[in-house]
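Appendix B. Raw example, untouched.
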Amino acid sequence: MPSVAVKLYSVFFKFLLKHRLQNRIQSPPDESSPFGVTSRPDETVAAAKPSFTDGVATKDIHIDPFTSLSIRIFLPDSALYPPETDSKPHHHPPRPKSRLPRTKPPGSDSDPDSGSSSPPLESSSSPYHASRRNSSGPPNIPSNPKEDPRRNSFNVPANGTDGLNLMSSSVGGVYRGYSPSPESRRKLPVMLQFHGGGWVSGSNDSVANDIFCRRIAKLCDVIVVAVGYRLAPENRYPAAFEDGLKVLNWLGKQANLAECSKSMGNARGSGAGGGSGGEFKKSQILDSFGASMVEPWLAAHADPSRCVLLGVSCGANIADYVARKAVEAGRLVDPVKVVAQVLMYPFFIGSVPTHSEIKLANSYFYDKAMCILAWKLFLAEEEFNLDHPAANPLIPGRGPPLKLMPPTLTVVAELDWMRDRAIAYSEELRKVNVDAPVLEYKDAVHEFATLDMLLKTPQAQACAEDIAIWVKKYISLRGHEFSY
């Protein structure tokens, strides 16, 4: 069972949440403007840090002039190392036996996987500790990174970095991106992350979401793009879903613009140098105001052909919608390819209650009555239905055929009333041969791995590690890194 502190915090949390939801229902805001909001004034936010002081640099971008849609990019410092070129086999450190599915957090008395030899990755004093799980091969890191001959004092590879080298002149300064030569470029997979909050709260730059995304970026060795979608009731369905799809299309546009920019630069370089040995010249695609349209961090380091969707609570509903639309679009979203998705305790519901919805209706933090209030704020009054396609994944004719869906990892908590419907959706995927395992965590509550007060618990850290292990199957350039 949860600790006394968790129980007390749950009572306080539910009281405040119910008060806020009822106030928004009784006093609906002006919904005439589509611009909307992506965070609430009472949300504690973390400032973006465009430097690698803790191993991950972040940047906020407002990508849609017509709405409040924004993103926060989390770039791990492993992207600054060029990929390995040797053909020697990589030796990974021994790992404990399979953790899929997990029923106990590491460190518990009955967990055979627990032990002092496997501390959480982010607890290491070395910013390069997570590199043992690199998706394109662990970098050959010297004992003192400052003595690495491939790097200069600005954490940028020393060879072939003409072009968009925008590092500040102070050691450990702000990283703005660069366009390295092909032999030193390191591409990382991209993970689109959708935060939770019951449609009406939460943000991509909140302190809790910032910590979680940093953890995932290090463990999975990916570029995390946290989506700041529009909140309800200012913007009801399908605004949040459209924002998720808009970011996926924006990612594809960025990849195409980066390719065009690179081609233009290569053409100018070969012309200036009298052949293929010419010096690489800086080339950018600018908008009508003279600003660069290419995001340098993504242009230099993102591999959109290895795109993973990760959604938390109601964000999992958005991730599943984006995955379905990507399947329907097919090659229209090229070069973006959604290779997998992770649904963390999805915000699914339905008119016919499941066993967990009956037994755990008054569960911790998010009980069923409050979640129905959240759905009333998200769906328009004339559309409100617990079997709405956004709410119930098991209704017929939702489309596309489930057999076309990407591999889907589902994370559920034992004490969450939404667990059974999430498990049922995973079972339907497995029936049509989609890789869709379920990770169920014992004595866990809804948002046990992402809620602010629970982020540092062993269960939360174990969940992030388990997600990384599974995601590696689909983003590794060398194939399956781990077997189960």
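End of appendix B.
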